[in-house]
Amino acid sequence: MFAQMSFLPEQASAVAGKVDALFLFLLALTGAVALGVTVLIIGFAIRYRRRPGAEPATPRIMGSTWMEVLWSTVPMVIFVGIFVWGAQIYLTMAQPPDDALEIYVVGKQWMWKIQHPQGQREINELHVPLGRPVKLTLTSEDVIHDFFVPAFRTKIDVLPGRYEHVWFQPTKTGRYRIYCAQYCGTNHSGMKGYVDVMEPADFDAWLNNRAEGSLALEGRKLFLKLQCITCHSANSRAKAPVLENLYGQMVSLRGGQAVLADDNYLRESILAPQAKVVLGWEPIMPTFQGQLDEEDLIKLIAFIKSLGPGQTPVRTEDAEPPIAPSIPTSPLLLPPGNALPNSESSPTIRQTPAVPSYTLPRGAVEKAGPP
Amino acid sequence: MSSVIAPYRPQSAPEPAPVSQLDVNYLNASYGVKSWLLTTDHKRIALLYLVSLSLMFIIGGLAATLIRLNLLTPTGSLVTADTYNKLFSAHGIIMVFFFLVPVVPSVLGNFCLPLMIGARDLAFPRLNLASWYVYMTGAALILWVIFSGGVDTGWTFYTPFSSKASHTDVVPALVAIVFAGFSSIFTGLNFIVSVHRLRAPGMTWFRLPLFVWSLYATSVIMLLATPVLAAVLILVGVERLWGIGIFDPALDGDPLLFQHLFWFYSHPAVYIMILPGMGIISEVITCFSRKNIFGYKFVAFASVGIAVLSFLVWAHHMFVAGQSAYSALIFSLLSYLVGVPSAIKVFNWTATLYKGSVTFHTPMLFALGFIGLFTFGGLTGLMLAALGLNVHVHDTYFVIAHFHFIMVGGMVMAYMAGLHYWWPKITGRLYPEMWGRVAAMIIFIGFILTFIPQFVLGYQGMVRRSHVYDPQFQVLNVLSTAGASILAVGYALPLTYLIYSLFRGKKAGPNPWSATGLEWQTPSPPPTHNFAVQPVVDCGPYEYSLQSAELGADVHGN
Amino acid sequence: MATRNASVRWHHFDSLQHQQESTTLGMWVFLATEVLVFGAIFTGYTVYRVAYTPSFEAASRQLNLLIGGINTIVLLTSSLTMALSVQAAKSGQRRKLVRCLGLTALMGIAFLGLKAVEYYGDYRDKLVPGLSFDPVQWTAPDVHPSQVQLFLIFYYCLTGLHAVHLTIGIVIIAILAWMARRNVFSPHYYAPVEIWGLYWHFVDLIWIFLLPLLYLIGTRDRWL
Among A111, A217, B123, C130, which one is most buried in terms of CB atoms within 10 A? Predict the structure, then answer.
């Protein structure tokens, strides 16, 4: 038993033990059946070997229906049992818990680019906290890759053009190998990395020590820069649905179907907006295909996912003007012909805020300023 | 077949009665290159295939040698990454499409099927010759591709890598494989019509030798699956040539569509490879235990059952590819179903030995080795079909070990068994028995040493198609390469002594094994038209147990 | 296929009828493989048709249904003449056989000619991905140029593969017509006519599937 254990890789995730249990059971079953067949064959071959000089005289045995039925149905039953066991584990692997920590992974020839929602970015390294479920959302920039962590017993093909998900819950700190398990070209076997499982406190410290804004904050900047806000604003002149609380809801489409607003839906709506038009709105959204790479898309999607009620950014032009200043501005700034204003008669001066007012997206940490 | 069984004659017995000096057989009926290259005799065509397929096996084996040598060190110091990728692609393409799929049908099937059903040739002899030429065109093209720069997509040609990212001669490789596919379609067509229409009088379906049943089932798969491969490879070629995105997500294509269409052929293809081997085992086990096959109808129907079920399981190659969980569940369950007929066969072969009279000639040693290795490899298939476990071992060396157990430990051993079993019939010579036994044992040991470590490597996480690997995997890799070197010796031996036997082997009589079967009721080598008189069949194919009461009856006829 | 008038029985068959039954079975088996080839491409087409219906329908509307329709009539008529050929062969009417085979081949050639005209028209209308295609033309809502290109690729692959099969059929029918002229066939020996008739009908049948799948999936304001 222990000799067997020594050739198993480390078990570092919650599901690893279950996978190994199934494997060891099947190994035992395989061994028993193979041994049984071997013993029978060698046994019969020796027992019934032709003695020298003897003429062969064998009974005319044609078969036995009950034996055939027996050795068809018994394996069938065992197989169905194994199927159910394997399916149970698989279904667990296919359903990430709702409170999983989400991390984005982009595979490309021949590296793994990892983005934490809080902003930390890594290449070929994935830091995760111990004991929390982690859900990876993966895509590829070029060909099909595969994200494989033997210690976690997880594996998923990473496809270009869509998102796949895989989840795991690390149960042991340490560094565990990441491999690419789908042949992807010259450096396929060099496309390796490490998962770094840390104590939660260490992980939080590591997470805070980074230079950029969170993914959602970066996505918000893109949302404004690309003028998404022009149509997706939360006012009466909006020409497109508001995106607050959108993620995870069912969306009714023109044409009658309803679809779940998941990562793939958001991605498609940005790149091919005509594919699924929301009921009650016109198909006027332009496509952003070619203007965004995978990492930009991930930022935008992270931002949309973070949008709670009342959190849609407000455009500059729609911003409420601040209270008029009681002291006049410098005469040099007055348009020609205007008298010096005084607080009673002058119109309220619109002052453009330097930065539009906003609420920080949920989960974001206030940037401390340049390091 | 004839109700006479020639009395058992151990090979140390004196030569059988000398045949006429004017003994003309298919080998010496005509001479000259043209008589061989334009032959329509199924036996000569079988030999043409034997030579070409042996050559392809050697080339594919050379690629494997270089792969294993490269894997001696973790840093892959033998060849560059690109060369390594081309090597495993060449190995896979040659071994799958240009060796394993055609070998038993086109060599042993072509030679034996008409003899076994009592016919004078296959239904369409010129189509048979055409199939060899089509095969040779494909083989020449793929060899040109490999030696002029290679192709680096793997034998699976996954898109978008093969259609967009690869910088090698993908399209010629695809064309070569389509040619090989046509060759197998022609062969399968010929076999099906022959079995339906050319059986000797009295040869009912349930008196057919099980080798014929297995060839029939194989032919059904060849006919129905290979066209799908041709279609999908053509589409990939079109995509690559014209830059359109049939399977490219950047252009609205779906890479999973490629995988579904590809595996719709390639899974049944593995049954094309193994079914004829299973048929050989039925022949050899019965002959060398001198007993009827246990459960003839069950074995026959199991072949057909495997053929049918093989079309329903393809997406078990795609459990982690991004298909839905529901789809995965269905294919997993069906994959377990397809294991049952194979299990039935193994149990039936084992039961055939019971109360038999067993001898350990070379074909029998290979056959027994087959049963052991195929059983073990098939059982690891149960592991792969288990969804939760598949996630961990997919695309690792575990899968490589599994299919090499079936293909090499199974199929190639079965081919060796059949080659040795029918060698006297094909050539009229006996191979040196001692060397045959030595080769069988060396191959068995070398095989186990090569591939058992790979199961361990796979579970520990070593992925497929690895030019370099992490240092902790080195010990097992070295073991595996050591085994491969033993295996190479094991394969070199038959190459040597079989050729040697052509010149110096003892002459074989019509029936050196005292086997039943119509092919043994005609001289070795057979005359061009197989039988002097139309055989008539009046009993089942493996009636070893009936004592040879009518000694002295005409060996050739009724 | 045999030389004129000689015994047409191959040595491994028991009788002419035995040979003819076997060759007919062989042709049926071969046609089964053809179903699978076209079936695989139809499957790919269907997957994309379901996913990208508006683009496929928009692209389908641009195909030349007039030529497609005429070609259908041509091919169906050629199947009629082919069936008449088989009947003529069975009843030993040599001249009728030659004429019907010739007509069949001619109509096949007419089909190919019309197809060539149609392809040229497609080229002029910028419907050939990779050669002449203009994404700007496809701006309707829900219609994507890359999906339109997918449709067009399947259109060319399917009709192209069909045309290749048709060409092979025409060559063989022409050879059969020449053989018929030389009196090779008789009521005792007409298997080649029969089996290649099967092939010809199959090629026609493929076209019957192609026409609605490719030409008729979008509603049209005007049908030509």
Answer: B123
Q: Where are the alpha helices (DSSP H) in B149-209?
A: 170-197
Cα dihedral value A198, A200, A204, A206, nearest 10: -10
Q: Does C40 touch chain B (CB under 8 A)?
A: yes
Q: Return d(Cα A165, Cα B320) in angstroms, integer.
A: 11
Name the DSSP letter for residue C142: T
What CATH number did the domain enclosing C98 receive? 1.20.120.80
Q: What is the 3-state secondary structure (H, E, C) of B32-56?
A: CHHHHHCCCCHHHHHHHHHHHHHHH
Question: Is there a common fold for A101-208 and A215-316?
Answer: no
Chain A residue at shortest CA distance from C55: A275
Write down the domain spans for chain A.
Answer: 2-48+64-94, 101-208, 215-316
ipTM, interface predicted TM-score of the complex: 0.90
Burial class (CB in 10 A: 0-12, 13-18, 19+), B75: exposed
* Subunits adjacent to chain C (3 or more Cβ pairs under 8 Å): A, B
Q: C153: domain range?
A: 37-215
**Testing the interface with B: which of A4, A64, A71 to mutate, by most B Cβ within 10 A?**
A71
Q: Any idea which of A177-181, B134-138, B538-542, C34-38 has the lowest mean pLDDT?
A: B538-542
Nearest by Cα to B335 from B351, B313, B311: B313
Give the model's pLDDT for residue C14.
83
Pick the CATH number of B42-521 from 2.60.40.1120, 1.20.210.10, 1.10.443.10, 3.40.50.10310: 1.20.210.10
Which residues does chain C have within 8 Å of residue B235's beta carbon, measured at their own beta carbons? 41, 44, 157
Q: Is residue C166 part of a domain?
A: yes
User: Does C138 reside within a domain?
Assistant: yes
**C:135-154 residues touching chain A, CB 8 A cutoff:** 141-144
| Average confidence (pLDDT) per 10 residues, chain A, 371 residues | 63 93 95 94 93 80 92 95 96 92 92 89 92 94 95 95 93 95 93 93 84 79 86 79 87 85 90 84 83 88 86 68 49 44 40 37 39 39
Contact C48 B228 (CB under 8 A): no
Query: Residue C188's CB: how many other CB atoms inside 10 A?
Result: 12
CA distance B169 to chain A (A): 14
Q: Look at residue C187 and tell me if it is in a domain.
A: yes
Which residue, among B134, B218, B238, B244, would best test binding to C if mutated, counting the most C CBs under 10 Å from its CB?
B244
- Is there a domain that residue C5 lies in? no
Give me the residue from B161, B350, B389 closest to A185, CB to CB.
Answer: B161
A101-208 maps to CATH 2.60.40.420: yes
Query: Chains meeting B at 3+ CB pairs closer than 8 A?
Result: A, C
Output the pTM of the full model.
Answer: 0.86
Interatomic CA distance for residues B113 and B195, integer angstroms: 8
CATH 1.10.760.10 assigned to domain A215-316? The reply is: yes
Question: A89, B388: Cβ pair inside 8 Å?
Answer: yes
Residue type, C211: L
Are B346 and A109 within 8 A, CB to CB?
Answer: no
